[in-house]
Amino acid sequence: MSEHVYKMIELTGSSTQSSDDAVRVALTKASKTLRNMHWFEVIETRGHIEEGKVLHWQVTLKVGLRLEE
């Protein structure tokens, strides 16, 4: 059985659509330069309000990257 080691990083994505879309934005952008992303955990969700309406969402994630052998 192979043992794996992971490195954790934090990312913050933003979106005017939804918190789910903010997660997608962060992971899609990160996947262009990072390899071996295997899991994420939402650690914080924030939003910007103007005139009683949500203008955009910000979501901070912990992302686990498996280190290569």
Automatic annotation (TrEMBL):
InterPro entries: Dodecin, Dodecin-like, Dodecin-like_sf, Dodecin_bact. Coiled coil: none annotated. Pfam families: Dodecin (PF07311). This is Dodecin. It comes from Caballeronia terrestris.
